[in-house]
């Protein structure tokens, strides 16, 4: 038999096997569009605007449907009821982390964000306990954020009211808060280590939000053979890992088990206590991934949210005026804002919530997976199946938020002007896998933004109607457009 015939027969066999597997699986899973052999539904999805594709498909197949990215099925949850039922009512069954081949290969199932099973449960418990311990120390996390807010203001003063791109400064602030928590000390905004950290973190965030990564995740075999941005991500992480290990080594040499200084110290002490239990993975390799998780989740996301917030405040100056009036009335111009002020500032609180709702920073959360075979809405979802929760469909629900495509702080205010909570507010996801840094991020957004607006007027270089608020990259997270702004001291 000649090689060409063998090739044709082999490809035919693989094609038939793929069709048979998909037909068998689809009989148990929620409905969805018919997948093509090998590539699945990839051509039916707009990888540049996945949430828009999900909305269209939900109108045809309902709030729970199945897509194939390559040969692997993915169940999509669309709308508040489906997301709540899965992630909250069946939280344990949907608490796994979905496949993410680009990162799985690098992080090897360690850390918090991309781990599973006992490793995830133990590391999340440790992280929450440690952040709580640091928050109750002699120098609380709120103190650290307030200090950084003042440093941020001083950096903005140096612009002398001239047009500037605030991206770097606004990302430095949350990065320095994480530095303070992880390394004990903040750094100067011109410190070369901070500059390198921000450079690689920002580049990796953009890489993860690019369409190419969606292709790599659907067809992981190409990771070892094709050039592309996934290789740049790996190179950047190698640098970050080296820097983190250097800081960890310094901590180990000066460790005082009776007086932990920061996150690394708490981990090293815990590791010594648990060194006989290998299953819990208190290793240096795991610590580097956890530190990367803290910087990755706590720097770019908060920085991007603040960039978006200032952009929206320039586009809607009437909102800015109301927020600044409330700051003047409750805080004044002299003392620093504190978290207790938030209870007396409903409009400011509503505006920050509306920023997070409107920008929809992480539209589809990070993929989940079911931890066992699950019967869900009369469908059978096999153990290990990836699940995507469309947070965008919840944050933009027109029944909960009238005119959801309009930026309106009134979405979080009642008829008397009091702040109104909403179960649909899920920018940090929900359920067992809700972001562990939610409390810190909310604190930073409130203290940073109120401190900026206490000290400066925001001046746009173009009329408000011409301010562009369209994101430039649309993948795992949204990246705000670059813009210039003038910070005019008041």
What does this entry look like structurally?
- It is found in: Endoplasmic reticulum membrane; Microsome membrane.
- Keywords: Endoplasmic reticulum, Heme, Iron, Membrane, Metal-binding, Microsome, Monooxygenase, Oxidoreductase, Signal.
- The relative contact order is 0.15.
- This protein is an alpha+beta fold.
- The chain contains 17 helices and 11 strands.
- It has helices spanning 3-26, 50-61, 80-89, 101-107, 117-135, 141-157, 167-183, 192-208, 211-218, 229-253, 263-273, 284-298, 300-315, 317-330, 346-359, 391-395, 438-455; strands at 64-69, 72-78, 96-97, 368-369, 374-376, 379-381, 386-390, 456-460, 473-474, 478-479, 485-489.
- Helices cover 51% and strands 9% of the residues.
- Helix 6 runs antiparallel to helix 7, helix 7 (167-183) runs antiparallel to helix 12 and helix 10 (229-253) packs across helix 12.
- The strands form 4 sheets. The protein has a 5-stranded mixed β-sheet. A two-stranded antiparallel ribbon has the order 5-6.
């Amino acid at each position: 038999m000649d090689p060409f015939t063998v090739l044709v027969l082999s490809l035919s066999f693989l094609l038939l096997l793929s069709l048979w597997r998909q037909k068998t699986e689809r009989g148990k899973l929620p409905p969805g569009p018919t997948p093509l052999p090998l590539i699945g539904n990839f051509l039916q999805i707009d990888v540049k605007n996945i949430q828009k594709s999900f909305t269209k498909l939900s109108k045809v197949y309902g709030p729970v449907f199945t897509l194939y990215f390559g040969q692997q099925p993915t169940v999509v949850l669309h709308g508040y009821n489906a997301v709540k039922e899965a992630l909250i009512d069946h939280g344990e069954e949907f608490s796994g982390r979905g496949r993410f081949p680009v990162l799985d290969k690098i992080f090897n199932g360690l850390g918090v964000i991309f781990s599973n099973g006992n490793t995830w449960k133990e590391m999340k418990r440790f992280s929450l306990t440690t952040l709580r311990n640091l928050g109750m120390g002699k120098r609380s996390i709120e103190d650290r954020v307030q200090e950084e807010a003042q440093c941020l203001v001083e950096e903005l003063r140096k612009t002398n009211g001239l047009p500037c791109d605030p991206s770097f400064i606004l990302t430095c602030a949350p990065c320095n808060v994480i530095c303070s928590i992880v390394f004990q000390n903040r750094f100067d905004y011109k410190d070369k280590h901070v500059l390198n950290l921000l450079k690689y973190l920002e580049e990796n965030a953009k890489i993860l939000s690019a369409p190419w990564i969606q292709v790599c995740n659907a067809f992981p075999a190409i990771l070892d053979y094709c050039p592309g941005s996934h290789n740049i991500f790996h190179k950047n992480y190698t640098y970050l890992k080296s820097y983190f290990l250097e800081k960890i080594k310094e901590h180990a040499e000066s460790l005082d088990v009776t007086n932990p200084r920061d996150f690394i110290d708490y981990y090293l002490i815990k590791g010594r206590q648990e060194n006989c239990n290998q299953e819990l993975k208190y290793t240096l390799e795991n610590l580097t991934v956890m530190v990367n998780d803290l910087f990755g989740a706590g720097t770019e996301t908060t920085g991007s949210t603040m960039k978006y917030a200032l952009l929206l405040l320039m586009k809607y100056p009437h909102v800015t005026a109301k927020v600044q009036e409330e700051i003047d009335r409750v805080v004044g111009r002299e003392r620093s804002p504190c978290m207790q002020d938030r209870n007396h500032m409903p409009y400011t609180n509503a505006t920050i919530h509306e920023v997070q709702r409107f920008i929809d920073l992480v539209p589809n959360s990070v993929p989940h997976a079911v931890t066992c075979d699950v019967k869900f809405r009369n469908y059978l979802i096999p153990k290990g199946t990836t699940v995507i929760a469309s947070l965008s469909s919840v944050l933009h629900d027109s029944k909960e938020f009238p005119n959801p495509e309009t930026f309106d702080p009134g979405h979080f205010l009642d008829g008397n002007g009091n702040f109104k909570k909403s179960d649909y507010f899920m920018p940090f996801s929900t359920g067992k896998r809700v972001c562990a840094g939610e409390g810190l991020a909310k604190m930073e957004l409130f203290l940073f933004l109120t401190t900026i607006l206490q000290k400066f007027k925001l001046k746009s270089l173009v009329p408000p109607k011409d301010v562009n608020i369209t994101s430039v990259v649309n993948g795992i997270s949204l990246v705000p457009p670059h813009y210039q702004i003038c910070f005019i001291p008041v």
